[in-house]
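From the pipeline queue, job 12 of 40. The input is one protein chain; the requested action is below.

Action: predict structure.
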Amino acid sequence: MLIAKNHLTNPFIVINADDFYGQKAFQKANELVQQELILANRYGMVAYKLENTLSENGAVSRGICTVEDELLKLVIERTNIFRDEEGIVMYEEENANFVLDAESLVSMNFWILHPSIFRSLEDKFNQFLKENSSQLKSEFYLPKVINDMIKEDQLEVIVKKSNENWFGMTYPEDREVVVNSIRDLVDDQKYPKSLWT
């Protein structure tokens, strides 16, 4: 994302390349931008219900959100989230299982950002490199940067909820689900058969 910093002068969206977010998410993001609600100290996020973001083929990681009055207060990354045999949503941590509310809002990394983020992002990335340069598997997470900015009272994040089902490529076995889901959307004329003509 830092590579693009000199080319972005207006609010912009950041998404994962292997996720399908649905049309409504982009409409909600556009509304925030058109209403001029995305500012240097106010960003946006589209959140999903946890139960709409699970894979049938294995456990997933999700950012569990605390939201008050449409403002993001906290994102906690939970790994190894799954449905048990009874359909209850759980996550595993330190060899113990804990129940999660299937209605919880989660971040799927659909952010509506302002170019002002690059100041904090660059500072925090340089600090990350100093602390983790020898750790080849370390990752620099955008949600953590945004979380830190919220805690430091530098930022508000407006949360818009999507009730659509997310789907994406977490496991190789997810490919069939993704292909069939996109085919269904094309057949229902909700998604174009050809993106480029």
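Job complete. The mean pLDDT is 91.
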